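Structural biology now treats backbone shape like a language. To illustrate, our science desk offers a sequence and the tokens encoding its fold:
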Amino acid sequence: MAAGTHPMAANALHGRHAVITGAGRGIGAAIARRLAADGARLTLLGRNLDVLQALAAQLPASAQALPLACDITSEASVFQAFAAARAAAGPVAVLVNNAGQAESAPFHRMDAAHWQRMLDVNLTGTFTCTQAALADLLAVGAAGGAARIVNIASTAGLRGYAYVAAYAAAKHGVIGLTRSLALELAAKGVTVNAVCPGYTDTDIVRESVERVAAKTGRSAEAARAEFVRGNPQGRLVAPDEVADTVAWLCGAGAAAVTGQAISVSGGEVM
């Protein structure tokens, strides 16, 4: 097996064009590495072009990874990025809506700007990117190809958590969008699914741990234990575990799986 090849990879996505939003770090970067190992050609979207370029340089040449700066809260930015991606790598066959942002606040202290930010990034961004890719995905499906939309939601889209009402509402919306769009596209060769990670070992969680520690005066270890406690396996989820689930949904073996919200959370009860 070649160095850097995933043990489950067998070029399952060979030559297919996959667009990943929020690809620069954490779960998005793990997804990029996994889909590249499976043979996909990649477009990497995110706000920080330098970070995307650094990731692209680490990926195999076969991925032909194209890093593009994109603000998913701007319709103009999204459609411009997708046009550039299409011009460089052809029609989009796989869309992974991974970009997201989490902010916390007690509901009584939450202002309208906080609420709107969470909707704009987590829900409307997913809507806009899906609209930008949809014509390509339908064309791929009509030609007998395997077109895939995978939305990275959260266990917060399956249950409530205190102090993240806006984030949870947005992620519930992503799952509703996933289920409805799956029904619309089921007979058109396009599957639509959501992956719902629990607390995952990413910069976002590390930053959240630091905020909790700073606000409460507890140690970072004690704050981290609060995040781990909800996982029956007693640990944070690894980004590669989320990426493996995405890769499976993009493969031939998941052709009959659509409209699902798959929890990757160590058995957390929803």
Q: What stands out?
A: Strands lie at 17-20, 41-46, 66-69, 94-97, 147-152, 190-197, 261-264.
